[in-house]
Amino acid sequence: MTARGSHERLGPAVLARISEKRRKGQAGCLAMYSSWFGGVVTDPGGMFVPVDDHLVHRGDGVFETIKCIRGALYNLRAHLSRLRTSADAIGLPVPVDERGLVRICCEVAAAAGRDDCQIRLLISRGPGSLSVSPAETLGSQIYAVAAELPPPYHRRCPGGARAVTVEVASWGSPFLARIKTCNYLPNVLMKKAALERGAEFPIGVDEHGRITEGATENIALITPDRWLVFPSEGRILPGTTADRVADLVQESITGKELRGVRKADILRGDLYRASEVLALGTTIDVAPIVEVDGRRIGDGTPGAIAARIAALLEDDQLTNAELRTPVRG
Fold first, then answer.
1. 3-class secondary structure, 229
2. What is the pLDDT of residues 108-132, one digit of tens each?
3. pTM across the whole model
4. Residue 90 backbone dihedrals phi, psi, to 5 degrees
5. Exposure of 205 by Cβ count < 10 A (0-12 exposed, 13-18 middle, 19+ buried)?
6. DSSP assignments along 237-263, one per residue
7. In Å, how far from its chain's centre is CA 166?
8. pLDDT tens digit string along 175-205?
9. Which DSSP string do the residues of 201-237 spell out, in sequence order?
10. Residue 135: Cβ within 10 Å count
11. What is the CB-side half-sphere exposure of residue 160 using CA atoms within 13 A?
12. Which of 46, 155, 205, 311 could make an S-S bridge to 41, C-beta 3.0–4.6 Å?
């Protein structure tokens, strides 16, 4: 049996179908910068990465997701610092300096034509071969995609979220967990496990029974004695939103609604007994988790502290000039 001659060769008809499929599948993509073709495009049909880029077939690259809100990129320096740390950890050269990355992010955000969007900034090992060898490329590349930004989770889903714990001991190493690489298969499997159990958020549990993180979120809890507690460092990617929330709580809530912020080993039982459980991330902001593994958290509704933290974070995003990088000028 042969497939010879069974597929149409590349031509106008095939190119038209490719363009149409891209437009349908990438409806939320607003603009893309590529160092490979040296510019910005707004037609989804032109948003692509070379198939021989090691980002595609090896997951060899690092990335960040940056929020643009009311015409300014929020907390950009923290994201670029983590991007550089991730790239250095895997020996991946970043082709431009920080100023160049800022310029690219601003250009693609401006081309998106929206005051609110998200920027996915990726550094790849580059195209050149289908080998695993990082030496067989033509050099690192930069891709930046501006996409639609959903409303914060607490606005989209005011009733809160369901979560389940997922064993992650066999998925990846602690070293890689602390690097924001483009190989997110463990995270995909976490999310898949949660969805199959009827929950939106997975919460990782390591080989010692300790809570780690979500698929793309940091996890925190409010204890009955009013502490905001983050998991101890380990198999966890340092979170820009989590770090900013910790600072905001220290500045505005400590000594009032909360006693303070700390890190500690968190076990499943600690989650179940918590007054509130939170998921934190760039695009979701603050997601109150009202159920974990079928157990109600607190009274089963989003808590007052989650609402207070969400309000502090939103105000910081809109008014903190030191953390806002205007897209235009």
1. strand
2. 999 999 999 999 999 999 999 999 9
3. 0.92
4. -110, 15
5. buried
6. PPPHHHHHHHHHHHHHTBTTTBSEEEE
7. 19
8. 888 899 999 998 999 999 999 999 999 999 9
9. EEEEE-TTSBB---SSSEEEEE-TTSEEEEEPSSS-P
10. 8
11. 21
12. 46
Angle at 240 between CA 235 and CA 242, to 5 degrees: 70
Return all residues near 38 (Cβ < 8 A) that are at least 6 apart.
none
Task: Tell whether 3 is covered by a domain.
Answer: no
Residue 142 · residue 33 · CB < 8 Å: yes
Tell me the one-letter amino acid at 53.
D
CB 31 within 8 A of CB 59: no
- Asked if residue 312 and residue 188 are part of one domain, the reply reads yes
Q: How is 6-56 classified by DSSP, letter by letter?
A: -SPPSSHHHHHHHHHHHHHHTTTEEEEEETTTTEEE-SGGG----TTSHHH
DSSP letters, 115-155, are: SSEEEEEEEE--SS-SSS-TTSSS--EEEEEEE--PPPHHH
Say whether both 93 and 173 belong to one domain.
no
Which residues are the active-site residues?
Answer: 180
- Give pLDDT tens digits for 212-239: 999 999 999 999 999 999 999 878 999 9
For residues 307 and 89, the answer to whether their CB atoms sit within 8 Å is no
Residues in Cβ contact with 126 at an 8 Å cutoff, skipping those fewer than 6 apart: 53, 54, 137, 138, 139, 140, 141
Residue position matching structure tokens 């700390």: 262
Instruction: Give the tens place of pLDDT for each residue, 80-94.
Output: 999 999 999 999 999
Distance, CA of 236 to chain centre: 13
CA 46 to chain centroid, in Å, comes to 24
Query: Domain range holding 128?
Result: 25-149
Residue recorded with tokens 């820009």? 240
Query: Token pair for residue 323?
Result: 């953390």
Whether residues 36 and 170 share a domain: the answer is: no
Which of 120, 149, 178 marks a domain boundary?
A: 149
